[in-house]
Amino acid sequence: VWVEFKGPWSGALCVSAPRSIADALAENMLGLEEPPIEEDSRSAICELANVICGHVLPGLGTGAEVFNLSQPVMLESCPVDSYVLSGHVEMSVEDTYTSIKLYKSATEAAA
Asked: Under a CB-based contact definition with an 8 Å cutoff, are residues 7 and 67 in contact?
């Protein structure tokens, strides 16, 4: 899942997780008794990415900054190379199954 943001600095958040994680997330978010349909799993992982981005960004500054988030987009892989980025990773959390990375854009990363 890819979420772009603009504000005092701009960039993107990438959340990568296998389908099983998205399914478990949807089951818990929606209180499902049965396995979720694919759309529910996609919506759940997109919502998680949106919540993470919305909560992490203020913590990287003074907390008074305002950021505008794009709608999360489900992708096979995050387009780090196609987005104009410095390659600077502000935050990275990874384990065996999931990866969460926050990138700053090239223009603001040097500031």
From this structure: yes
Place of tokens 């349909």: 37
Give the span between the Cα atoms of 38 and 36, in whole angstroms: 6
pLDDT tens digits along 21-79: 999 999 999 999 999 999 999 999 999 999 999 988 888 878 788 899 999 999 887 77
How far apart are alpha carbons 110 and 91 in whole angstroms?
16
Question: Element (H or E) spanning 85, and its range?
Answer: strand 85-94
Which candidate, 9, 100, 109, 104, places its Cα nearest to that of 51? 100
Torsion region of 32: left, alpha or beta (phi above 0 gives left; psi -120 to 50 gives alpha): beta
More confident residue, 111 or 76: 76
